[in-house]
Amino acid sequence: MNPAQSPHGALSTTGRSPDVLLEGRNLSRVFGRKTDLVAQALIKAGLAQPPKMLRAVDRVDLTIKKGEVVGLVGESGCGKSTLGRVIAGIIDPTEGELFWQGCDIRSLSSAERRQIKLGVQMIFQNPFASLNPRMTIEDVVGEAPRIHGFIQRSGKSSVEYIDEQMRRAGLPPALKSRYAHELSGGQRQRIGIARALAVQPEVLVCDESVASLDVSIQAQIINLFMDLRQELQLTYLFISHDLSLVEHISDRVIIMYLGRVVEEAPVEEIFSHPNHPYTRALLAEIPRLETTKRRFTALKGELPSPMSPPPGCHFHPRCPHAFERCKLETPQLKEVAPNHVSACHLNDAGQGI
Amino acid sequence: MNGFASDPKTMHSSSRALLDVRGLKVKFKTNRGEGTAINDVSFTLRRGEVLGLVGESGSGKSVTGMSLMGLIENPGRICGGQILFDGIDLAKLSDLEMERLRGKRIAMIFQDPMMTLNPVLRISTQMIETVRAHDDVTLVEARRRARDALGQVGIPRPEERLDAYPHEFSGGMRQRVAIAIALLHKPDLIIADEPTTALDVTIQAQILSEVQKLTSEYGTALIWITHDLSIVCGLADNVAVMYGGQIVEYGPVAEVIRSPRHRYTDGLLNSVPSRNRRGDRLRQISGFAPSIFSMPQGCAFRPRCSFADDACHQTPPLATHGNHAHRCWHPISSREGLGS
Ligand SMILES: Nc1ncnc2c1ncn2[C@@H]1O[C@H](COP(=O)(O)OP(=O)(O)OP(=O)(O)O)[C@@H](O)[C@H]1O
Ligand SMILES: Nc1ncnc2c1ncn2[C@@H]1O[C@H](COP(=O)(O)OP(=O)(O)O)[C@@H](O)[C@H]1O
Ligand code: SF4
Ligand code: SF4
Ligand SMILES: [Mg+2]
Ligand SMILES: [Mg+2]
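The joint structure predicted for all components is written out below.
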């Protein structure tokens, strides 16, 4: 964002550390299950139960500091994308507050909110689905900056601007009159990145942005993210289920399980001293380049349904250390080492694992 | 080499390979022209052995797997080579003969379990049908076998879940059902085409542990197709690295990981995050994989290879040292490999 038109300086802050860019407090996002017309009629007539609510994100606190790479890890369906979309302002939280550089987003005018939304851009998993097939690459990259007045409709300076975004994303500007479907998966992902960069964001939320790419192309895109971080002082929320990638590029890691944050720590700390039993199970299963065969083992128990999560600690049906209290009481996040929090009752009992 | 040498099946028939693929070639004819999807692919597989087939998308992994299943259809065709399965050349079988083998002695697990499952039929219906397609047993017996197979892949309360529809299962569970179907006839060979790519590590480990049990308990031979070398490491005995429709490197997993010979394998290994210092740029392979309609002349990796020279304009022959083979004019010497 252009600092001159940036809303943050003008507003009073709540006095938090100035390097906190984004803060979410007690964020929840609840989805109602979709009902068809017949089901709606039945519910009205009292012949069926109203649909269950699904708490995709459950009272999450989160801070992202300027220039930081925060890794967000968890199983499919645990709420990573939903949290990412809340942070990027694509959907609203059903509960909780979101602060941008210390000011409550709800206290802002809609114009100011729009500015902030531009400042947080999301890069999706499937680069193809998010690209309009009838638009040339030039149009895809130029659309948002034109709408939001970063560049003119046409003219030399806007051509240069678009070329610059493409070059930053590692795309030769010569490709700009082509269509997305004519390009490879890695190139399409670069279009998504160029499009996001074109509105000069401060934060990129990368949702499984390399998951569908080949290993050698993955490395190229990860390197691009790391270069852009240097070049543009970008901040990242890096959502992935690939722990070795998260370990490589993150400064801090957040582990989610069924909508809740269960552990959070700096990257070296979490990979060397994982505390939560779920984190430990995840780390144990990272596929590694190793030269001996290993015996794969399975966590006991079934993946619970997010529609009816188990009571107490959500992880208890699969936890090898579960005890009575785990079924009754939700463990709270507590500090187990400096900057390292974990939500497990074992930490109270004073019994290490 | 085989991690489970005590297995009965492995011992009594280790002399002859279960599968011997020789010089396999598959072409596709489309409006963009004719392209060679796989070219001169050869490998062997013994009972109970696990082969990891690794490569980028488009390198020919699935086409190799589909050829073994007799599933190459128009506009593709097998136009060279042999697929000797227990001595029979599968490439020469009629559709009917192939159908008798498929599902019975050779089974395939696809990346998308819905390639196997029919969304409108109960799991029980589909499994019972599969049992009775090859074995003349009663409904009750077929149902019992279906239930046992579900239990075997770790589906809790299989009797209850048997009558569910596919959509009532999560992605990981659906994949386990697809695996259970592949197991119904305790086939001699299973081809698994990226079946865990979309799954989380804990679920992936669960599926790998089921598959591992199979190979050790029944001597099932397994081809595990993936683009992720690190998955193959803990699972496979041998690994075949594919690039541009050819196996460019083949050998025991430990050897290929420790001292790769081909430049592409080396590049792939070096780009893995754990081989790079945290926070550093990853050592990447630049460029991207070729299309089968515009294959570079000679070594297909040439445009991306920093060691390429004039010699590389000729197709490198397969050079074999013991059981480690590669196709590269300038292979990495063992000393160089240790240094990098
Ligand atoms: N629009 C929606 N309506 C109803 N339920 C939803 C909606 N979006 C997400 N959910 C549900 O919320 C939960 C969390 O979904 P989310 O997409 O955030 O998971 P995720 O952690 O990103 O998973 P994955 O790794 O598979 O992408 C899931 O149970 C999902 O089915
Ligand atoms: N039905 C088809 N028609 C045309 N080309 C095909 C077809 N199936 C596969 N190919 C081509 O064959 C090559 C190898 O494909 P495949 O084996 O699916 O690759 P992968 O290694 O990703 O599994 C690719 O270039 C692909 O485009
Ligand atoms: S609270 Fe109990 S069930 Fe949950 S992770 Fe800790 S020990 Fe396991
Ligand atoms: S044959 Fe030549 S181009 Fe191909 S990998 Fe070897 S050195 Fe590189
Ligand atoms: Mg998601
Ligand atoms: Mg494939």
